[in-house]
Amino acid sequence: MSALPPLDLHAHVDPRIAAHDLTNLRAAIFAVTRSLAEAEQALARTDLATVWGVGCHPGLAASQQAFSAATFSKLLDRTAFAGELGLDGKSRVPISAQRTTLRSALEVLTTKPRVLSLHSYGATETLLVELEATPTKGVILHWWLGDPILTKRAVQLGCYFSVNASAAGKSELLRTIPRDRLLTETDHPFGNRRSKGPRLPGSVADVEQVIGRLHGLTELETRLLIWRNLRAVVRQVGCSSLLPGTIRASLATVGEQSS
Fold it and tell me: Given CA atoms 193, 197, 199, 201 in this order, what sign does their dihedral have?
């Protein structure tokens, strides 16, 4: 189990980064993109332990305007990960336009399920309404700030939750999330501003410590819990063949220890 690397389910990484800089992080990273154009650039890479996503950030007007369901679908053929997608109640992009983009993406994902990282800042209930209208596998609510009632509703929808250093300080929120739905993230360089450790993608030790204390787990048990939860998501969407080999190997290790 000690061979399992830290797991970061949501980080912003420049697609032009040198391969060795990612390898040196010694972490498994799910790197979101903010536009289909950025995703196209990112998916040209072949990194050992970084999964590049296909995204369209709800806060960026140019990305929203350029979204194409056909292009989104084509890009998904090359990755196990979709993100960052979702809704943002503080965005200058009209919420109606954001919902149109999200609905188009969710419709594609019903036929091509992927690990899916969703943004919901200022629009938690509205996002759940969209997920109820278009049930989608593999949903991970990134930096979730919903109240206990909405959190329970999200759990009932089958959602998972990726927690960063900023969200980890909200103990009341964490207590409403079942331990088998918890994942770790940095949301580098935004969600790790309060991190006590290095502000780098993959640096989730402080979040793991909070989760461990909350559930009475050792450091190793916490890391194993997070990987088991990712394994459940990957099995749900059936896209393991699209993951880098090193991540598949870690998931296989988790499977052996679960048996």
Answer: negative
The Cα–Cα gap between 44 and 79 comes to 11
Contact call for residues 30 and 10 (beta carbons, < 8 A) = yes
Q: Tokens 């394994």 sit at which residue?
A: 231
Burial (CB count <10 Å: 0-12, 13-18, 19+), residue 83: buried
Q: What residue segments make up the domains of the chain, in order of their start?
A: 7-258
For residues 97 and 64, is the Cβ–Cβ distance under 8 A?
A: yes
Tokens standing for residue 141:
């609510």
Task: Tell me the CB-side half-sphere exposure of residue 146, using CA atoms within 13 A.
Answer: 25
Instruction: Determine the CATH number of domain 7-258.
Output: 3.20.20.140
How far apart (Å, rounded) are the C-alpha atoms in residues 122 and 217? 32
- Strand 50-52 to strand 28-32: parallel, antiparallel, or no bridges (unpaired)? parallel
Helix/strand/coil for 182? strand
Q: What's the CA dihedral at 82, 144, 1, 20 to 10 degrees?
A: 50
**pLDDT tens-digit map of 157-201:** 999 999 998 888 787 889 999 999 999 999 988 755 666 667 899
Structure tokens that stand for 167 in this block: 């969200």
Count of residues in the chain: 259
Residue 180's CB is within 10 A of a number of other CB atoms, namely 11
Q: What is the pLDDT of residues 94-148, one digit of tens each?
A: 999 999 999 999 999 999 999 999 999 999 999 999 999 999 999 999 999 999 9
Tokens for 2, please give them: 């000690």
In whole angstroms, what is the distance from residue 51 CA to residue 35 CA? 16
Cα-based distances in Å from 81 to 76, 115, 147, 169, 257? 8, 5, 27, 27, 25
- Whether the bond between 189 and the residue before it is cis, its omega within 30 degrees of 0, is yes
